[in-house]
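Structure ticket #2291
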Amino acid sequence: MTAPALRRLDPPGLPTPVGNYTHGVEVTGASRVVYVSGQVPWADADGAVPADFATQCRLVWRNVLAVLAEAGMGVEHLVKVTTYLSGREHRAVNGAIRQEVLGEHRPALTIIITGIYDEAWLLEIEAVAVA
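Resolution: structure written out below.
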């Protein structure tokens, strides 16, 4: 499936985005929108949760990508990603893994430090994709 046209919106006068995102994304030519519910670090149907952040983060991204694949989409279709972190200490690892997953793709991005539904979960990621 061909990705729609995405135009990064990084207006002059705003700080240069750092950390694998853009200030905004204009989408043209889209005919479908997929909203990915908050994905959590369950390793399997039994709800096993790895203890370390890096493993949880890769697992959550695996889940996000699985939902996209089910819709015939991939990373290049993402236009908005919201990440909920349980603590600031996870920022660097989160950013590094997001960079691995997204490569050069730059969706709009929000990171929120918050309490998460299950105390074993160190993050949750939701996303919007278009095709």
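Closing remark: The first strand starts at residue 5 and ends at 9.
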